[in-house]
Design brief:
CATH class of chain A: Alpha Beta
Number of domains of chain B: 1
CATH architecture of chain A: 3-Layer(aba) Sandwich
Number of helices of chain B: 10
Shape of chain A: globular
CATH class of chain B: Alpha Beta
Radius of gyration of chain A: 16 Å
Distance between the termini of chain B: 10 Å
Largest sheet of chain A: 7 strands, mixed
Structural class of chain A: alpha/beta
Helix content of chain A: 25-40%
Radius of gyration of chain B: 17 Å
Strand order of the largest sheet of chain B: 1-4-5-6-7-10-11-12
Number of strands of chain A: 13
Largest sheet of chain B: 8 strands, parallel, barrel
Largest interface: A-B, 36 and 34 residues
Number of domains of chain A: 1
Distance between the termini of chain A: 12 Å
Helix content of chain B: 25-40%
CATH topology of chain B: TIM Barrel
Strand content of chain B: 25-35%
Strand content of chain A: 25-35%
Structural class of chain B: alpha/beta
Oligomer: heterodimer
Amino acid sequence: MNIVIIKYNAGNIESVSNALSRLGIEAEITGDHEKIKAADKVIFPGVGEASTTMAYLKKEGLDQLIPSLTQPVLGICLGLQLMCSHSEEGDTPCLGIFEEKVKRFVPQPGMEFTTKVPHMGWNTITKLNSDLFDESLDNQFVYFVHSYYATVGEHTAAEGNYINPFSAALHKGNFYATQFHPEKSGPIGAKILENFLKI
Amino acid sequence: MLAKRIIPCLDIKDGQTVKGVNFVNIQSVGDPVELGALYAEQGADELVFLDITATHEGRKTFVELVKRIARELNIPFTVGGGISEIKDAEALLSAGADKVSINSSAVRNPQLINDLALNFGTQFVVVAIDAKNYDGHWTVTVNGGRIPTDKELFSWAREAEDRGAGEILFTSMDHDGTKGGFANEELAKMADMLKIPIIASGGAGNMDHFVDVFTQGKADAGLAASIFHYKEIAIPDLKDYLRTKDIAVR
């Protein structure tokens, strides 16, 4: 299976490739349009800031390429946020694959010291609704690190709850995305990556 | 519900895991990758690897070790020790570390916190603070607790947050190695001041100490070394115990 991880100016792309290696898959990390188009599956990971990353994607023409892909695509963390319509981070228009919007977590007044931002650590996912998941994954813990979240909407494929309910995963047609890091989520995360590889 | 995190800490010297009691009498307790993978399998939520090697050769060994850790481990990990400029952090992050922890270098050069946060994001930056109570004044120390600085614990923690720290790792040098429990009073005070997560370190001796640090100490994560390395507490047992006390754990 030919798996491509999209290379761009985001952090920690290697950790996704390491996670795939542990599953016996050697992925190619590349920004080359032809290679991305030819891949069986594409992973769009990322840790970073929305506006600078979108500017980079535009410069590389990836903002046109990614929404036009027809094979299964998995966005992770910032990848998920950039696949939405708009992010509050830097007031950034995003790729618009999902209509959901990306907002910043705002603790309830008086709760700033108990519900800290970023939402960092292990939290559960529920209301699973995608072939990324199976029943065994309901209410399991996965690893999150984020200050912005996608709202719950038509394409929500898993819900998380921190300060308010949010989209822990999104799914529309061939596009999948997780707000959490499956590559850092132990055996549960490995299962989710395996499920994606089986699609 | 966001889970409270249990974080084993591995001190590394020349590629091997070590842990001293009060940072002296260092004893070797194994291969870091093997031990880290074992902890991950047992349910550790994160790992911290601190390089206590001072030599240039040792630093290179550590970067290679971080690459191996990143390939083997499927949970997040933080690395620290000897990071005094951006390029040190960059080498560790590109080797696959999820976060870097800075301690003495941040005390000497607080701007380093801003620079790291700006370059890599706040979530990459853990500011570790070792402090000691001198006649009622909590004073930040460096060099493994040996040298007091002119910084006061709580104002330094707040400054670190303002400069872009994503988390604070607070070690009470008065509690470290004693196995008498964490510095819960100081931890709770810090938790009520800061909007970023706090990792408590120093003093874990039994499972009730973790209950206390998550309730009285209001910590987001509890870090310990020797009690895990010497198998005095097994992580699965600790998690089960915390669940019986209604503390959310994975």
